[in-house]
What does this fold into?
Amino acid sequence: MGYTLVLGGARSGKSGYAQHAAEAAAAAAGSKPIAVVTAQIYDDEMAERVTKHREERGDEWDTIEAPFDLPQAIKALREGDVAVIDCITLWLTNVMLAEKNIAQQTRELLVALKSTQAEIWVVSNEVGWGIVPDNALARRFRDEAGRLNQALAECAAQSVLIVAGMKLDLSRA
It folds into this structure.
């Protein structure tokens, strides 16, 4: 079936775009949309963010928590399921902080996404447009996120960039 990659900066509207698209697709299919979430709650500010996202989705959504086992969560989706993965860059953060093999984890993620029969919107942050970070971990994250986004875009059925709540369809150069 393929998936849609939804890229954007912080507060660009990418999650809202993916959520609305998935709600429409689920309604058309007569199913309930699924939020596959990757966040881990380490502090009060993150807890507030998670609560806000849950409230925005409401009770009409099912939720799967997959901070590390994202490929397995995708493999568990069935034909006819409609899902939003929010977000890939938080998943990457989890992988990096757990010192897992990023290349292997990325391969497993791409295999799962390519083989699923579910309709999926994959939300990811575009982090490479700002200044060069001042520390090695942040530079490594920026670089890994850029490589991951390229790999996801290469395999996606469609990629869109959300800027100021507006969608721009992307095509291969």
The chain has a mean pLDDT of 94.
